[in-house]
Amino acid sequence: MTLADLKRGNRARICGIDAAEQSVQRLMIMGLVEGAELECLGGSLGGDPMEFLLYGSALSLRRSDAQHFRVISTPVAT
Amino acid sequence: MPESTTINIPIEDLVISQQMTLALVGNPNTGKSTVFNRLTGLRQKTANYPGVTVEKRVGKFTLDSLSFDLIDLPGIYSLSPNSADERIAVDVLLGRVVGTPQPDIILAVVDATRLYQGLYLLQQLVELGRPIVVVLTMTDAAINKNIRIDTNALKNELGGIPVSEIVATTGRGMAHLRSIINEVVGEERNTSDTSFWPELRHSAKTLEKKIGNSSLTLTEIERAIIDGDPAAVSKLREALGANADAQIQKHRNTLCGNDPPIAVETRARYNWINKTLPQLETRAFTPIRWATKLVNWLNRPIPATALFFGLMAIIFQAVFAWATPFMDIIDAATSGLGVWIQSTLPSGIVSSFLADGVIAGVGSVIIFLPQILILFLFIIVLEDTGYLARTAFLMDRAMRAVGLSGQSVIPLISGFACAIPGIMATRVIPDRRDRIATIIAAPFMTCSARLPVYALLIAAFIPNSSIGFANLQGLVLFGLYMLGILGGVGTALLLKRSALRGPNPSFILALPEFHLPSLRTVLFKLLDRARIFLRRAGTVIFTVAILIWAMAYFPRSDSIETERLSAQEQASAILADDVLAAEISSINNEAAAAQLAQSWLGRAGQWVEPVFEPLGWDWRVSAAVIAGFPAREVVVAVLGTIYAVGSEANESSLTDRLKSATWPDGQTVFTLPMVLGLLVFYAWCLQCAATLAVIKRETNTWRWPIFAWSYMTAAGYLGALLIFQLGST
Questions:
Q1: What are phi and psi of B322, to 5 degrees?
Q2: B681, B676, B691: which is closest to B712 by C-alpha?
Q3: Exposed site from B56, B252, B542, B600, fewest CB < 10 Å?
Q4: Which helix (H) or strand (E) holds B379?
Q5: CA distance B415 to B501
Q6: Could you tell me which of B486, B476, B426, B487 has the C-alpha nearest to residue B451?
Q7: What's the Rg (C-alpha) of chain B?
Q8: CA B331 vs CA B337, B371, B372, B477, B650: distances in Å
Q9: Terminal CA-to-CA distance of chain B, rounded, Å?
Q10: Which tens digits make up the pLDDT trace of B340-399?
Q11: Rounded to an integer, what distance in angstroms lies between the CA atom of residue B175 and that of residue B156?
């Protein structure tokens, strides 16, 4: 499963990154690294780009970039 | 360490006599600019064009008779720059910008609600080993979200650097921040050797030992190893000779193996953050408030799109409806002044200069101040609340169709205020081709200087009637805005398919949280815009108006004057009372028109008239349009002056004078096709010297401004030609 598969309200933890592309490296600088936990806030018109919440920061990225982040889902915080 | 020992000796003495430079550094949207405004107040050089921009802003403030220069740097996430904008920030921090001293103290601004992300840059800033103060902003928002930050722990984990907590919007904590700055000034230069990725620091030190005494800092060597930073690499080559690249590569391989170096760096640094963060902050559960729920709902695609178009409709409505009462006041004041001058001063050169040149010229532009301020009010509020970034998110898909990304949306929307901040806002766009395509598209956006021209012509020639719910004048204005967007986006598409062909850019954007605008910031920026507008009216437009008046007034023809006097004499011999007055007024008007036609301006206008005749413009309109090339709003001033000089009765408004303008054969000049063509010309033509200068500066070549000017002028001319010719048949 990758970040691109998440739906609004889903939470997940990043477990692997294909870091070859420069845009992916930029996202890593912004905190999308292995172990980071985030929540999907939804998508723009047509579901692309997507928006994620990462430790208080809202971050938007395209599906094509989100596919480079493998995730495992984590339970929704109550 | 070698770097600091050389400067360590007389620093105390230097501090007293020298200006200290401070730099505000931090992630985007952490409230840097608000801190900047709090510290410097009105004592800042906001460059010429603030707003959405990233222009270098410098302000001054004093503490205990010490004087500080404060630089507000563009937001960055790390010392690995990714756009022109970020490069400036990094270069200033490393002391590489000519004319900007390396900051003596770094004010590292960190959003208390986004400590996770902020700590990454903070690590790199602390590792610079220069005096540094951490400024935690948004602490009120953090409290609302039940985030508690242990500032003592933060201070200790960062190697003992001072931390100050503030609420920039209310000014709480500012006094404490000032006292901390004062303490840091008095301290010895910070030579702390903290590193959060010791392996990298070790590599850098190994290389440093081989270099011996050089101008390279450890951070620069590190950036050479990780990013291959060109400036640092070339310095290393100078110091190490031909062997430099191999040695850098060796260290890179040891540290990173086959992985991309940045990926390895981010893993190492966030590893430290993930370990340390639990000791720095606690996040307790907060119930979601209804306001947050509302904002979240509005952010969903369909409500967000509806909101976007709703807002646009309100803005257009407001620009016309709200401004009218204020414009009426200014109009009454200027025309009253003109009439008063003409009735008190003897008619002649002085009276004409003041009434026709100064007041008719400058006054006809100043009248649009209310409209321009209302437009800016909306754009400033949209920017300040974080809504502009939302539109980028919303529009990314559409922009992808023309080969750009949502990141081009913010510059283009800023272009509705003024192309210059719009062009400067393109600095956040990483790819040069995408950036240039956006720069060339930005001047097509209907800027506030086009508004006077549109407003004048629409009010005069488009009937104020309604079609359904919509007002016809408003619809025409909306159409002109759409025409601008179409021109800009179409041009970007053409460029991305031809000269600027390249891969589709990616889209990565941190979306700022929606927050209520700060009244202080909004007023600050609005005042600034008013000042810029009035200064332009008082300088450029004033000068052009006077120049045009002089060209329209001189030379005076004696034969026309004698003819006028003799015609008046003849009339008084055979007519009387009202009929005589009407006859004299018409004789005077004819004489004034004849004088104008043989003036320098008249002759020059008639000379170029053939070029613009196919568009239905007489020589007066042609002369006004040509005079408007340095700054488009000048055209209104020039029309004001030309039609004031060319008539005697000064009580009628410019609108009435335009309506009654005729060709020599008596046909109306301002027919509907001609007016629509003129509007299209103004929608597309690039009549702004300042924009051309900024395009030159930002693209660093004359090629693009020359292209933009020729292309847009041709587009405007052809558009006007097409409409006039089609409409007149």
A1: -70, -30
A2: B681
A3: B600
A4: helix B369-384
A5: 24
A6: B476
A7: 31
A8: 10, 13, 15, 21, 13
A9: 81
A10: 888 888 777 888 888 877 887 777 778 778 888 888 888 888 888 888 888 889 889 889
A11: 23
CB B125 within 8 A of CB B132: yes
Can you give the length of chain A in residues?
78
Residues pairing with A13 in the sheet: A37, A72
B707 burial level (CB within 10 Å; 0-12, 13-18, 19+):
middle
Q: What is the pLDDT of residue B593?
A: 77
Which chain B positions have a beta carbon within 8 Å of A57's beta carbon? 114, 116-117, 510
Residues of chain B short of pLDDT 70, as ranges, are 1-18, 42-56, 188-192, 213, 320, 645-652
Domains of chain B and CATH, by start: 2-186 (3.40.50.300), 198-283 (no CATH), 301-320+375-497 (no CATH)
> Position of tokens 């592309």?
A21
Tally of CB atoms within 10 A around B343: 11
Contact in structure between B638 and B548 (CB atoms under 8 Å): yes
**3-class secondary-structure state, position B48:** coil
Range of the domain at A48: 3-74
For testing the chain A interface, which of B85, B110, B149, B511 should be mutated: the one with the most A CBs within 10 Å?
A: B511
Residue B511 to residue A46, Cβ atoms within 8 A: no
Domain CATH code at residue A51: 2.30.30.90
Number of domains in chain A: 1
C-alpha angle B291/B295/B296, rounded to 5°?
115
In the prediction, which pLDDT does B496 show? 92
DSSP B43: -
Which residues of chain A lie closer than 8 angstroms to B147, CB-CB?
56
Q: How many CA atoms lie within 13 A of B414 on its CB side?
A: 26
- B148 in Cβ contact with B281 (< 8 Å): yes
Element of type H or E holding B606: helix B600-612
- Which residues does chain B have within 8 Å of residue A23's beta carbon, measured at their own beta carbons? 506, 508
pLDDT digits (tens, 9 = 90+) for A35-74: 999 999 998 888 889 999 999 899 999 999 999 999 999 9
Edge-to-edge strand list for the sheet holding B105-111? B44-45, B57-63, B66-72, B20-26, B105-111, B132-137, B163-165
Q: Which amino acid is at B336?
A: G
Q: Strand A57-61 to strand B163-165: parallel, antiparallel, or no bridges (unpaired)?
A: unpaired
How many C-beta atoms lie closer than 10 Å to residue B493's C-beta? 16
Cα–Cα dist B383/B390, whole Å: 10
ipTM of the complex: 0.95
Using the beta-carbon criterion (under 8 Å), do B506 and A20 form an inter-chain contact? no
The CA distance from A20 to A68, in Å, is: 9
pLDDT of residue B194: 85
Pick among B223, B394, B405, B507 to test the A interface (most A CBs inside 10 A): B507
Q: What is the dihedral of CA B41, B47, B53, B58, to 10 degrees?
A: -50
Q: How many Å apart are CA B440 and CA B492, to the nearest integer?
A: 7
- pLDDT value, residue B219: 93
The closest alpha carbon to B410, from B512, B516, B291, belongs to B512
Answer for the pair B614, B721: CB distance below 8 angstroms, yes or no. yes
Residues from chain A that touch B266, judged by Cβ atoms under 8 A, are 25, 28-29, 33
State phi, psi for B295 to the nearest 5 degrees.
-60, -40
Distance CA B181, CA B108 (A): 12
Strand B44-45 and strand A50-54: the pairing is unpaired
SS3 for B653-673 is: CHHHHHHCCECCCCCECCCHH
Q: How many residues does chain B have?
A: 729
Q: Are strands A69-74 and B281-283 parallel, antiparallel or unpaired?
A: unpaired
B357 DSSP 8-state letter: I
CA-to-CA dists, residue B91 to B76, B148, B432, angstroms: 12, 34, 19
